[in-house]
Amino acid sequence: MGDIKEMQAPAKERRLLILGAGGFGRVVYELAEELGIYYGIAFLDDAAQGEKVVGKLEDYQKLSGEYTHAIVAIGNNALRLQWMQRLEAAGYRLPVLRHPTAWVSGSARVGQGSVILPYSVVGAGAAVGCGTILNVASAVDHDCTVGDGCHICLHAVVKDQSTVPPCTKVEAGQVFGRDSM
Prior knowledge:
By secondary structure, the chain is of the alpha/beta class. It contains three helices and 18 strands. The strands form four sheets. Strands 5-8-11-14-17 form a five-stranded parallel β-sheet, covered by helices on one side. Strands 6-9-12-15-18 form a five-stranded parallel β-sheet, with no helix packed on it. Residues 1-8 have low confidence and may be disordered.
C-alpha cells in the first residue's frame, strides 16, 4: 500500500496531479488535502475551469517534471486504467489514497492508483487491483479478488472469497458474491 520511504520524504518533494475535476475529482482533492502529504495539488480537466485547474488532460506530459504523483479521478473504469498507463509511462507515481477511517487488513493488497474512501473495509487476504475505487462504507471481505479498474460503490459489499472481474461496477448497496448474482 504505497511506499513507506516515499511518504517519509518531505512533503515539498511530493506534488499531486488529479486527472478529472468533476465530482469524483473534488472528492479525491479533499481526501488528498486531508492526508496532508502533498505540497501542491492541482487538476487537469478538458472542461472544468478554476484556479486549481492547471490545464487539459493532454498536458500531463509537460507537467511531469513539476508533479511527482498523479491519480485518475475519472468515473469510467476502462478510461481510468488507460490514463493510468499513460501517467506511469510518463514517470508519475500512482499513489493509493486511503482515508484515515478506512480499515485495510495488514494481509490485504491494494494496487496503485486506487482510492479508498471513508469507512471502507478491505478484509484479510483480499487483493484489490490497480485504479480501483472503494467508495464510502464499501466492504471487500476476506480472500476476495477485485480486478483492476473496478468501482465498488457506496455501501456495496463483496462477499468473502468472491472475484470481481476487471472494470466492474458494483452498484450502491449491492451485495456481490458467488450466491448473490
